[in-house]
UniProtKB/TrEMBL annotation:
Residues 729-743 have a biased composition (Polar residues). This is Protein kinase domain-containing protein. SUPFAM superfamilies: Protein kinase-like (PK-like) (SSF56112). It comes from Sphaerulina musiva (strain SO2202). Transmembrane segments: none annotated. The lineage of its organism: Eukaryota, Fungi, Dikarya, Ascomycota, Pezizomycotina. Coiled coil: none annotated. Residues 452-463 have a biased composition (Low complexity).
Amino acid sequence: MADETAREIARLRAELAEAQRKQEVAERRQQEEQRLREEEQRRRELAEQVAGEQNLAHFLESCHTFCKKIRPVDDPGSATRGFTTDPASRLFPQTIALWDDFGERQQRTWTLLGDIDELWHTALYPSIAACKSIEAAIDPIGSEDDLRFLQRLTVDNMVKEMYNALMRNYELAPSLLGHGQISFENPASFREAEMSTLSDTMGGLAIRGTSGQQPRNTRADQFCVLWREDGSVRPLIAMEYKAPHKLTIEEICTGLQSEIQPERDVIGQDEGNSFVLLCRRLLAAVITQLFSYMIDKCVRYGYVCTGEAYIFLRIPDDPTTVYFSVNIPKKDYEVDVESRLQRTAVSQVFAFIQQALSEEPPSQAWVDDAKARRKRWKVEFVDVLATIPETERQSKEASEYRTREWRKGMRRSPIRLRSQCGEQVTHSTSRSDDSESDGAEDPPSPSPGVQTRSRTSRNAATRHAGTRGHQEGPSQGRNRTRIQDRAYCSHRCLLGLCRGLAIDRSCPNARKHLKHGAKHMLKDVFLRHVRHQLATDRGSAANCCPLFVHGSRGALLKVHLNVGGYTLVAKAMVHHDKTRLKHEAAVYDRLRRLQGRYVPVCCGTVELQMPYHYDGVELKHILLLSWAGTSLAQLRVQDEQFASIQPSCDKQIRQAYEAIEALQVLHQDAEPRNMVYNDKTGQLMIIDFERSEIVQRPALLELSPNRKRKRPVNQQGRKADHGEELGSVPSSLLRVQNNTRHV
C-alpha cells in the first residue's frame, strides 16, 4: 500500500514537472516571439528613421559625421606640390588681429532660430541615408580640387539645404534672405552663361594700388553670393581653399597664436628663423591673399578653409585691419558640449553667411580709404612652405589648438536645448503666397539690399554694422531714405529733363523735383551735379549703389541726385572702354524719337572725378539712363506668370525692332537679356546698344512668317542686315524658354 502511494506521488510529481517544463517552454517561445516582433518593429522604425527626413538638430548631427572622415592623403608624394600662396605685389593689411566677438556674432543667428519651436520639431532636412551616402563619397584630400569638391559636397550643399528648409517658414524668411537665394559660385559664374564676369572681360584692368603694380590674381577660389528676385547678385563671402597637407592645423595655430603686423613681424625678416616665425610668415601670406581679394570685390567677410580648419575673416570700417578667428569643427564639437551643434562646419558657415547678410556692402569711401592707406608686400615672396622642413612641421614649438569659450556672457545655447527634443513633425510648413509690400507707388527696382526684411533682421543689421568710421558725405542723415528703397523717375520725367519740358506730375519723385522749381534744371547743370555728387558722396549712406547686374563690359549702378531728387540708372565702364560708351550714347541720340517708348531715355555721359570701385575694377565713365525693367532672361527664371505675358512681349519686341531699324540702327545683340519688361506698366524696351551699328541707308523690311531665321552674325562672320536681325528675334525668344540659372 505504501509502495503504491509512493509511486502515485512520484507520478504526480513527474506530471507536474512535465507541465511546468511545457509551460516554461511555451513562455520562452512567447518571449522569443515577442522579442522578434519588437526587433522587427525596431528595424522598421530604424529604416523609416534612416530613410525619412530629419529635424534640424538631427540633421546637424548627421552633417558633423563628415568631419570624422576628412583628412589629408597619407602619402605626401601623391599630393600636389607648389607654392601655398604668392602674396608678392599684393596689398596687405597693417594688422591681423584676433576677432574677439566672433562667437557672439555667430550666436545671434542661433538665438533667432532658437525661439521658433517649429523649426526644431519639423522634419524637413535630408535623411540619415542621404547623409550616409555623402559620407561614403569622402576621400582623403590631396589637392585644392579635391578640397573644393569635398566642401561643395559636405558643407556648401548642406548649407543650401538649411536655407531651402528654413525659407519655408514665411515669418522667418524675411529675416534670412528676404526673397533671395544663396549660391556658392566660382568667380567666373556670377552671371548666367550669356553674361560674363566684368573682371574676366576686362583682363588686366584690375584695381591698381599706390605703387602702380598689379595683383597677380584678383580671384578667390569661390564666393558665396545672394541672388535676388530681380536677378541681381551680391557677393557676400570670399573663400580660399588650401589643401591640409600644405597648411596644417599646427601651422595655423602656431602662426596665429597672436596678432600679426606684417610690416613689423614678417616682411623683411630673416628667412632662417624659427618654426614660429616661419608659420607666422606663412599665415600672414595666406591671409594677405584673401584680404586682397576681399578689398577688390568690396566684401567684408571671407574664410580660408583646409577641410580640417577654418580661418574666418572680417574687415571692419578701418580697411587696414583684418580680424581672424580660427575654428576646427571636429575639436570644437568634442570640447564645447553645450553648444556643440552650432560648432559644426555647416552651422558655422550658415551663421557666417547671416553675419555677412546683416551688413550693407562696403562704401566707396571704404575702398578709397583702403587704397590710400594700404601698402603692398614689398619683397618677392619665397616659398615659405619649402623653407619648413618636414621634421620641423612636427616641431615641439607648434602651438596646440584650444577651443575658444563662446558661452561667456551669452544665454544658454538654443541648439543644445532643441537637440534634446526627440519628437519631430513630419509635415512641412507651406510658405505664404502673399509677399510683403514694397511700397504703394514704387516701380519694381533692382535693389542690392534684401527687399523684404523683418524688424528682427533690421535690428540685427544695426547691431552688426557698428559705427562707420569714414566720411559719410552730404547725403548722410538719420531719417534719410535708403537709395535701395527709392523709386525710379518715370521715362516722361527724364525726357522732360533732357528736352526742357514740363515736370511730369505722375513721376514718383515729382514733389522732390518741384521743390527746386517749376521747371527741370538744365541738362548740363544736371550732369555737373551728378559728377560732383559721385566724387563727394561716397560713404555708407551714399546715394549711389551697385545693382550687381553686369554684362560683358558694363555694370549697372543706381543713382539718386540729392539736388532735384532724380533717380535713374548708370551704365558704368572702365576708362579703356569709354569710346564704346560714347558710341552707345550716339546710338541713343540716333534713337531720340524712340526714347521713353521703345528704348530708355538717355540723359548723357559723365566722366567721373573719382572712380567707382566694382568687382575688382575702376569704373570711370557712366551713361545715365531711365530704368526700363527686368530682362526677359531673368523673368523666365523668377516669374511663374511669364508665360501669360509672353504673347504681349513678342508683339512689342517686333514693334520695337521695326522702329529701331527704321532709323537705320542695327542692334546686333537681339537676345532676351537685352529685352526688358516693366510689369507695372506692361511696357517692353530694348537696351544695350554698345555693339550696335548705324547704317547710312534706308531699312527695307519685308517680314514674312516663313522667312528663314538667322542669327545677327552669320556663319561667315558677316554682320546681319535689317531683315536678318529682325528675323533672329523669334529665335532669341525661343531660347528664353530653355534659359535656366545655374546655382
